[in-house]
Design a protein that fits this description.
With 310 residues, the chain is of the alpha/beta class. The chain has 13 helices and ten strands. The structure holds pyridoxal-5'-phosphate (PLP). The site of pyridoxal-5'-phosphate (PLP) has 23 residues, from helix 3 and helix 7. Its cofactor is pyridoxal 5'-phosphate.
């Protein structure tokens, strides 16, 4: 069901990153596609099944990338897509959602407020609410990244996964536990948006009052209980990283890998930077999961004085 343009993405050793990171590093590149993130793997499934079942419209809340992906998948299948997003989301994400013919509604608050509003729109319009990470198709779509990793040779020790709502971590993690149980599954979140990571450590849902991070793609405050249950089964660890490390990761991916990435996609590199001893001598795969950045912000991060080793 997934358009091949989103599948079989590059996976390669990036030796140029290795001297600074002290371990073998492979990149799974999820940005070279029409929506510049992995999210379309899931929305392709969602939209196919909806249209097969006769649906004409759907609504989702989005930090920006899911909305863009659902708009792309919906447009080519004649599905009317409404996206509810924060008006503080990166302008480029909002622009692309509109450009892909979705109806965009902005809320004067964060992603979790957008979730509430999307649910209200679904109730009012009598249309399907697509809930990222809760709807199993969004996790299964992301899980195809895991299938591709397992198929790939040579083997690796650890996969680092950016953790937001949890679709990618539960999807990829499930595949790893089923097909490559020796691979360590480590989720990474910013210290400024730690709700799911804290929940994983405390084995119960922990919410936060606010978020404060440049990694807009993973900045949620209210973990979904069912997703936490799944994450508890498939993740080996969940770690938090500092903003300075995320910025260093963004810069390193540009400098050593020639990749423009959004902050969420640099979380894996940030985790290695903060835990060199833990990863020393290991072969680590990091999923470079999105590249939708506002140029001004990106130049600020790239131009910022090097922050040194955390
Ligand atoms: C670029 C990027 N990375 C990571 C994530 C987090 O993924 P998930 O919500 O599946 O945990 C998102 C979510 O939208 C994203 O857009």
């Amino acid at each position: 069901m997934i358009d091949p343009t989103f599948l079989d993405t590059p996976l390669y050793r990036c030796e140029a990153l290795e001297p600074d990171l002290g371990c073998s590093v492979s990149i799974k590149l999820e940005t070279a596609n029409p929506v510049r993130s992995f999210k379309a793997r899931g929305t392709e499934l969602v939209a196919s099944l909806l249209v097969d079942n006769g649906a004409r419209a759907a609504v989702c809340a989005s930090a920006g990338n899911l909305g863009q992906a659902l708009a792309w998948s919906g447009r080519r299948r004649g599905l009317d897509v409404t996206v509810v997003a924060s008006r503080f989301a990166p302008a480029t994400k909002l622009h692309r959602i509109r450009a892909l013919d979705a109806r965009l509604e902005l809320v004067d608050g964060d992603f979790d407020l957008a979730r509430e509003r999307a649910a209200a729109v679904a109730r009012h319009d009598g249309i399907r609410l697509v809930e990222d990470s809760l709807d199993i198709e969004t996790c299964e779509g992301a899980a195809t990244i895991g299938l591709e990793l397992v198929d790939a040779a040579p083997s690796f020790d650890t996969v680092l996964i950016a953790l937001g709502g949890g679709a990618m971590a539960t999807g990829v993690g499930h595949v790893m536990k089923a097909l490559a149980p020796d691979v360590e599954v480590i989720c990474v979140q910013p210290l400024g948006a730690p709700a799911m990571t804290r929940s994983w450590h405390q084995r119960r849902v922990v919410t936060t009052e606010s978020t404060n991070t440049i990694a807009d793609g993973v900045a949620g405050r209210r973990p979904i209980p069912a997703v936490l249950d799944d994450l508890l089964v498939v993740a080996d660890d969940a770690v938090l990283v500092q903003e300075a490390s995320i910025i260093n990761g963004i810069r390193m991916l540009l400098d050593h890998a020639g990749l423009v990435v959004e902050p969420s996609a640099a979380l894996g590199i940030a985790a290695i930077l903060e835990n060199r001893d833990r990863f020393a001598g290991r072969h680590v795969v990091t999923i470079v999961c999105g590249s939708n950045v506002d140029l001004d912000a990106y130049h600020r991060w790239i131009g910022a004085a090097p922050t040194g080793r955390p």
